[in-house]
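> forwarded from #structure-qc
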């Protein structure tokens, strides 16, 4: 009898953990309030932007730097806990002579709505189309971590001057299996970012920058992308960097600038 009780107890505990994981997966994947709490101050030169989505939500963004007819606009998509203002500042620090933009994801204050992978994909297209209607320009999409899936989808759907994937994963489903191997993630996951399918057979010049000590996106989740990207112009792994300290490494700065220079050289031919 005690054995049956133990088995039932373990089964109930497991079912409870699975249920909690399923119910809170959106909050875990998209910690909007955490990102909002880490909002940095922008310089007075920053311009606030607003784009309306087709279903009535508001996407708030920031623009830094001056537009140039020669240099592409750098459009940034941050990690799941990144604040868009921090993304804009990071890109502006790397490329002070470029126009850079980043928007708070849907549901990430001050943007309205509820976040989801599907919404982020759709909103990136809305932002891109709005910018092109405002003024046609060359765009390089820069995706960090989960933002790499958003940037890859944009490159799949629209013509870009370049694509930079920083600590990217082959698919969100495969990454979820890495971190929740004990749960039936294939059945429970409601958010899908099949990055590897999005970059296949796409001519967009692409740079891939990974961290050798990454425990959030393990290197084995990045490796499959290398053979899938047909126009990989830069492939760099910062061996002694982790997922979050990558951005302080001089080698990361050098790789980012090398990637954009390669895109600009290709565009000028």
């Amino acid at each position: 009898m005690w054995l049956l009780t133990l088995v039932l107890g373990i089964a109930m505990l497991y079912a409870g953990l699975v249920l909690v994981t399923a119910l809170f997966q959106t909050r875990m994947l998209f910690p909007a309030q955490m990102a909002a709490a880490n909002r940095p101050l922008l310089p007075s030169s920053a311009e606030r932007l607003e784009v309306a989505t087709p279903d009535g939500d508001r996407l708030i963004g920031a623009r830094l730097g001056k537009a140039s007819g020669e240099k592409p606009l750098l459009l940034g998509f941050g990690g799941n806990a990144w604040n868009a203002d921090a993304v804009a500042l990071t890109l502006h620090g790397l490329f002070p002579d470029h126009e850079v933009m980043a928007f708070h994801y849907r549901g990430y204050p001050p943007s309205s709505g509820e976040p989801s992978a599907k919404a982020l994909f759709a909103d990136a297209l809305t932002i891109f189309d709005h910018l092109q209607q405002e003024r046609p320009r060359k765009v390089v999409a820069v995706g960090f971590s989960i933002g790499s899936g958003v940037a890859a989808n944009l490159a799949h759907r629209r013509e870009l001057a370049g694509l930079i994937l920083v600590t990217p994963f082959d698919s969100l489903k495969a990454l979820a299996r890495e971190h929740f191997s004990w749960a039936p993630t294939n059945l429970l996951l409601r958010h899908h970012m099949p990055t590897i399918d999005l970059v296949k057979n796409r001519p967009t010049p692409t740079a891939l920058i990974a961290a050798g000590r990454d425990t959030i996106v393990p290197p084995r989740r990045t490796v499959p992308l290398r053979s899938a990207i047909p126009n990989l112009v830069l492939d760099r792994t910062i061996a002694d960097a982790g997922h979050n300290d990558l951005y302080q490494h001089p080698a990361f700065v050098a790789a980012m600038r090398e990637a954009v220079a390669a895109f600009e050289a290709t565009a000028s031919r």
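QC bot note: The longest strand covers residues 58-64. The radius of gyration is 19 Å.
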